[in-house]
């Protein structure tokens, strides 16, 4: 017995090992097949504009990260490579979400992380790298050096560590942003991109506004070499003012680049509560099992709740009420072969067919609501980009340029200063339209969700109404009860009136529920205030003694002025 038991154990172990090896082979084959299919699909996507945009965005990000790290290592130390702890995961994230359907969900995260890390790098490049770069063109005239010298001319391009190369390297950022926006617009609009709508116009309007602002930021990057092109005379006369300008520019660059992270649809969104139903079965307890107690195949779905069963019964009653008198019922048509629909015992096939139609309609309606929310995020991003552009780019940059124009005795005014003035006017004019579009879009989404809840989740509304106001429900029953002494015409009109009144009541409850559960996103002014407070606290901690000395000197001057008066 012991020997036979041991043989049985060995046999069971060998069978188990064979099963495990078969499972491993199948699993490995499945992984290899999935990788091969994904590689083939990726290669096929390169033939589309969205796939080409994905490859170009990867190339732009990789080239910019590598060359900026070369600058930082050359002029600082290898410890700056700690930024690779963010750049490498971001590169993997960019490469992983290559499908255009995933662009709307992945691109906001990618642009947000990129903006924060890039803003920190730009501040370091402005303060520690750009002033130390040797000009590749020492014989160039002073007039040419004033302002931007974006160029790919051979005389400037031959030296890697030059101001022109660093500025041209920073100009990759608007290209990267435009590629991400293109992929996101393909994911949001799809075939609807050929139709002119308000949100599509705002998408491209935001695109060119942000791209021009990024070029303006790169032009301000040349103020790190302000002493090189203002002249020695102006430097001697207005040294404190020029130092103050060079101190303010990196703060403005960081603030504007960080808040440009929100100039992308999906980074900041309003909060919506959308009930998403699960597919359920219409099998009742009476039809749930056969005579032997075994369950039918249809029971693999979930069961109907009591509210859903009442919903199905009410819908079927309404359908039969709408049926013309001369039209035969569904059961009669099935018995006569009028429709190609199999009817199972107890009307289960009828219930399932009706519910599947309702499920398809629910999913189409839900997909429409989701698409409206995605397009609403474009309007939110456009409004935030307008505020950031006005208060963090155009107004402060124009102030600095006018100030410098006055210091240089009206001898030099950059051309991008005209851009600042025009963009202020354009953004102020468009902000009213953007705010109105945002308000109307919010109301439309709210009503669409309320209609979705009323049609497909009315049972939850009834439960909430019963819990909130049972007296109101009883009062509504008393009001909708038909009068016994009414005429036949009045009796026929009472059900339609009561049904319309009930639908209006449900719609009112749904709107109240959506308004209670939805919430606006945090305003961009909150981010500006929080960043300003954080910068102020950091400056006080880093320069505590200087701040205290300045404060004491200011108090002494104020006291002396009061004594003199």
Automatic annotation (TrEMBL):
The keyword Transmembrane applies. The chain crosses the membrane at residues 51-73, 80-98, 165-185, 385-406, 418-437, 521-542. Residues 463-480 have a biased composition (Acidic residues). Residues 284-345, 462-499 are annotated as: Disordered. Residues 303-320 have a biased composition (Polar residues). Keywords: Membrane, Transmembrane, Transmembrane helix. Residues 288-298 have a biased composition (Basic and acidic residues). Signal peptide: none annotated. This is Uncharacterized protein.
């Amino acid at each position: 017995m012991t020997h036979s038991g041991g043989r049985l154990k060995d046999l069971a172990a060998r069978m188990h090992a064979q099963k495990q090896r078969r499972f491993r082979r199948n699993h490995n084959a499945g992984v290899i097949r999935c990788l091969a299919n994904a590689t083939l699909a990726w290669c096929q996507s390169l033939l589309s504009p969205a796939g080409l945009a994905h490859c170009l965005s990867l190339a732009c990000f990789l080239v910019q990260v590598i060359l900026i790290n070369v600058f930082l290592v050359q002029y600082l130390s290898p410890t700056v490579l700690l930024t690779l702890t963010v750049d490498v995961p971001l590169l993997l994230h960019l490469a992983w979400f290559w499908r255009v359907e995933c662009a709307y969900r992945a691109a906001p995260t990618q642009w947000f992380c990129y903006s924060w890390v890039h803003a920190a790098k730009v501040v370091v490049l402005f303060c520690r790298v750009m002033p130390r770069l040797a000009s590749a063109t020492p014989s160039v005239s002073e007039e040419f050096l004033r302002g931007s010298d974006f160029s790919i001319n051979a005389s400037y391009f031959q030296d890697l560590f030059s101001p022109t190369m660093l500025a041209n390297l920073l100009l990759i950022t608007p290209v990267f942003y435009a590629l991400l926006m293109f992929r996101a617009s393909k994911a949001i609009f799809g075939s609807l991109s050929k139709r002119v709508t308000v949100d599509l116009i705002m998408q491209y309007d935001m695109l060119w506004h942000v791209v021009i602002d990024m070029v303006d930021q790169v032009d301000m990057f040349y103020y790190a070499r302000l002493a090189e092109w203002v002249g020695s005379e102006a430097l001697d006369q207005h040294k404190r003012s020029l130092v103050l300008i060079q101190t303010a520019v990196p703060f403005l660059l960081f603030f504007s680049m960080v808040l440009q992270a929100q100039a992308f649809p999906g980074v900041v969104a309003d909060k919506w509560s959308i009930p998403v139903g699960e597919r359920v079965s219409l099998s009742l307890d009476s039809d749930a099992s056969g005579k032997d107690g075994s369950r039918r195949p249809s029971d693999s779905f979930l069961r109907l709740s009591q509210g859903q069963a009442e919903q199905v019964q009410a819908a079927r009653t309404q359908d039969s009420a709408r049926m013309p008198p001369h039209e035969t019922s569904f059961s009669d048509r099935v018995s006569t072969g009028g429709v190609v629909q199999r009817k199972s015992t107890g009307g289960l096939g009828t219930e399932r067919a009706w519910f599947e139609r309702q499920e398809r309609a629910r999913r189409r309606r839900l997909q429409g609501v989701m698409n409206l929310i995605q397009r609403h995020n474009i309007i939110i991003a456009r409004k935030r980009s307008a505020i950031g552009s006005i208060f963090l780019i155009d107004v402060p940059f124009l102030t600095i340029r006018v100030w410098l124009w006055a210091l240089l005795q009206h001898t030099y005014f950059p051309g991008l200063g005209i851009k600042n003035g025009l963009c202020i006017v354009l953004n102020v004019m468009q902000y009213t339209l953007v705010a109105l579009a945002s308000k109307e879009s919010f109301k439309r989404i709210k009503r669409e969700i309320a209609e979705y809840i009323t049609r497909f989740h009315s049972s939850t509304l009834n439960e909430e109404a019963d819990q909130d106001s049972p007296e109101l429900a009883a009062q509504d029953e008393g009001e909708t009860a038909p009068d016994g002494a009414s005429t036949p015409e009045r009796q026929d009109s009472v059900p339609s009136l009561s049904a319309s009144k009930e639908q209006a009541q449900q719609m009112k409850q749904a709107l109240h529920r959506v308004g209670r559960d939805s919430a606006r996103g945090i305003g961009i002014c909150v981010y500006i205030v929080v960043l300003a407070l954080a910068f102020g606290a950091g400056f006080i901690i880093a320069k505590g003694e200087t701040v205290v000395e300045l404060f004491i000197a200011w108090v002494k001057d104020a006291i002396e002025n009061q004594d003199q008066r």
